[in-house]
Amino acid sequence: MTDADLRREPLRASPDILAAQEEIVEAFALFEDWSDRYQYIIDVGRALPEFPVEWKIEDNRLKGCQSQVWIVTELKEGRMHIHAVSDSAIVSGLIALLLQVYSDRKPADILATPPDFIRKIQLEEHLSPTRSNGLAAMVQQIRQFAVEALARQAG
Questions:
Q1: Which of 65, 69, 121, 139 is catalytic?
Q2: How high does pLDDT run on average in the chain?
Q3: Catalytic residue list contains 65
Q4: What are the b/e assignments for 65-102, b being 16+ CB within 10 Å?
Q5: Predicted structure pTM score
Q6: Per-residue model confidence as pLDDT tens digits over 125-136
């Protein structure tokens, strides 16, 4: 698959959480430089599903991000579905990468799987400190939602 193919069809859901991370690493390896990688991040962000306007409320806004980010989760049939959006193109792309890994997964799997792809693609080294903090806040919020989902499942 070429980088042009990736831009036409940026993300595909993988049935396995570890495979999803590896797919991201492989996709980033296809690009020669970070300007192409940034464009890829923007492109995958554009492919995010619609986020209902009524979900853009203060209770759903993520604290700790410089950009506006809203995140909502649902637990269906034992799997956590994550919906999120940002007013920033780059942040929307970061959201899309996190959703590829963590959405539609069992809460226990989310908690057992750190976002190793971030380190493997050296993402934090190429983000501003505020974007890195925002990415960490998104990961932490997803993990917190998974903890809460497990608690609801237990009882």
A1: 65
A2: 91
A3: yes
A4: bebebbbbbebeeeebebbbbbebebbbbbbbbbbbbb
A5: 0.90
A6: 999 999 999 999
| 88: pLDDT strictly greater than 80 | yes
Residue 59 burial (10 A CB sphere; 0-12, 13-18, 19+): exposed
The residue among 49, 43, 34, 46 whose CA lies nearest residue 5 is 43
d(Cα 24, Cα 55) in Å, to the nearest integer?
Answer: 28
**Is the pLDDT score of 13 beyond 80?**
no
Select 3-154's CATH number: 3.90.1010.10, 3.30.50.10, 3.60.130.10, 3.40.50.360: 3.90.1010.10
Give whole-number Cα distances, 22 to 71, 82, 90, 148, in Å: 24, 20, 21, 27
